[in-house]
Amino acid sequence: MADEALEALDAAVARVVQADDLPGARAPSYRLTLDLGPRGQRTATLSLPNVTKEELIGRQVVCVLSGEEALVLAARSHSRGAVLIRPDEDVEDGSPIA
Fold first, then answer.
1. Whole-prediction pTM value?
2. Fewer CB within 10 Å of terminal CB in the chain, N or C?
């Protein structure tokens, strides 16, 4: 049952290939271009004040896909704020989350 619920989310690993400032946002925010390997590219917005766009480029992240956009997942820590969820080791871009 839990496996079916996770598969329904369409979550995958993506690599950040571009990070641009998102003007007009209240907190430092970026528009990300994510590479999902054979699944193509998607865009996402991300507001993480403790991460620079230079640190994001090339990093793998876990995201939930919805049409042409993606939602990059983070854990909310009381001591560290938002922390990106990512694989411990590099995997193929577009790998499904199981």
1. 0.87
2. N
